[in-house]
Amino acid sequence: MDNERLVETFVELADTLIDDFDMIDFLHVLIDRSVELLDIDAAGLLLADQNGQLQVIASSNEHVRLLELFQLQSDDGPCLEAYGTGHTVCHGNLATANARWPRFAPAAVAAGFGAVDALPMRLRDQVIGALNLFRRQPGPLTDTVLRTAQALVDVATIGLLQERAIRHQEVLTEQLQAALNSRVVIEQAKGLIAERLGIDMEGAFTALRGYARSNNLKLSDVAGKVIAGRTATGDLLGHD
Amino acid sequence: MAMVGSRSTRRARVWLWVAELAGAAGVPVSVASLCDTAMTRLEVDGVTLSVDTSAGWPETRYATGALGECLAELQVTVGEGPSTEVRRRGAPILVGDLDTTNSQRRWPMFAPLAVEAGAHALFTLPLAVGVIRVGALSLHRVAAGQLAPAALADALIFAELALGLLLDEQAGLPVGATETGEAPTLLTPQVHQATGMIAAQLDVPLAHAFARLRARAFADCRPLAELATAVVARRVRFDPDDETL
Asked: Which of A67, A200, A204, B11 is deepest in the core (most CB within 10 A)?
């Protein structure tokens, strides 16, 4: 594990009291660094809205997103369990998990994943969401990796709740609603890009994200610009 | 502990409130009955619905009282206020007290004028679907104080329902026709992706594409999410020359 990068990541996740804090980008940092540092293949993150309903906010690729959605809709899966119980849920061999998660397990296996870990985003008795880590190869995560993952999640959770503790519940609501709307903008842009460039949604997302990174822009800002025609769809290609 | 299904229960309950009020008055569900219901149920002193216009500033579509209308006009006149900001950010702005240094720093012209007019608390919720900006729902109170968590959750539902009614109008559908109050709104990612695709297929703005998608789903008696999935899977296309809509 790259320690310097790990430290960098912790610092970034702790720094949420900035003027232009963007929840989507923040959670994408958590997701992307988790994939990079923890020797996993994909990650997805869900946050609970005002009604305790989990909403997909970020995922490392389109496949995982589909799975998160699947989990929500079918009411079974490790993420829901982790959120509901406040405890980490691990399964090292999804091929044998059909009894536990009759809908999620087969779908995860079909998507190419052999193992999953779900960590609740929790501060004392408050659970605000969950982080799902996916691996293609079955087998358990090492203790070190699991502890590191937990630390990343804890720092991110505290980061999200910092403003709330200092200010009010309303801030979290405003942030969450902004993130949900940004999510919609990203989906709308994906559709537009996919149609114009004749590619699929995963390709469209990759193009969007690549362009955002190369130009140091927020994902949702690029999405908005593409829709408004201020960034040409063609410009998105060639950035990986 | 996750409360699965609580959101759909809450939504059903709020929709029932609106339907009951309209029913008691012997009128169909409308933006007006929704605002009137919200005022009573959320225990606020006024509810105002504004819609975005091509002129570039919002127009008050319905206000339960004069103060709400006044607050809306003030924001247009001075060119600042939560109304403009929620539209830009696509997120609510919940101000428990307009009479604080914070509020006055944020809206140096609007905040003192609003307080003078008699409003201390102002909660503005955008009515939007991604880049499709339709309008805003504003709730105000004479007394300062934030909305209680349950009221806030209900307020967000009222905003969703109001958005649905306005979208029905835009799509040329009977107002309230697509709302059952049951399942959480079927705005799946595929619906948004399909909207983007249709906008490219027809070379129209997203709002127009969304209206076409909803209208087609209604005309074909097909759930919106299902039609959207078909569009994303490229089994259904929208053709500029299509005259059925």
From this structure: A204
Of all residues in chain B, the one with the smallest CA distance to A20 is B89
The answer to whether residues A7 and A121 belong to one domain is yes
CB-based burial of residue B184 (10 Å sphere; 0-12 exposed, 13-18 middle, 19+ buried)?
middle
Q: Which residues of B touch A (CB under 8 A)?
A: 1-4, 6-7, 10, 89-94, 96, 126, 128-132, 146, 149, 152-153, 156, 184, 187-189, 192-201, 206, 232
What gap in Å lies between CA B94 and CA B122, rounded to an integer?
Answer: 6
ipTM for this prediction: 0.89
Assess whether A161 and A195 both reside in one domain. Answer: no
- Rounded alpha-carbon distances, angstroms, from residue B7 to A55, A68, B2: 12, 18, 11
> B6-170: which CATH topology?
Beta-Lactamase (3.30.450)
Domain count, chain A: 2
Q: What is the CATH number of the domain that holds A200?
A: 1.10.10
User: Model pTM greater than 0.80?
Assistant: no
Are residues A52 and B2, on separate chains, in Cβ contact within 8 Å? yes
Q: In this structure, are A150 and A73 located in the same domain? A: yes
Query: Which among B158, B195, B162, B164 is positioned nearest to B178, based on CA atoms?
Result: B164
Provide the 8-state DSSP code for B9. Answer: H
Q: Looking up tokens 């063609």, which residue turns up?
A: A234
Structure tokens given for A62: 């389109």
Q: Which two tokens mark A209? A: 């994200």
Domain-wise residue ranges, chain B:
6-170, 189-232
| Same domain assignment for residues A158 and A40 | yes
- A201, A62 Cβ separation under 8 angstroms: yes
Are A202 and A85 in a shared domain? no
Six-digit token pair at B226?
């299902």
- Average pLDDT per 10 consecutive residues for chain B, totaling 245 residues: 54 89 90 96 96 88 96 95 90 94 94 97 96 96 92 92 90 78 66 96 94 92 92 94 61
**3-class SS of residue A129:** strand
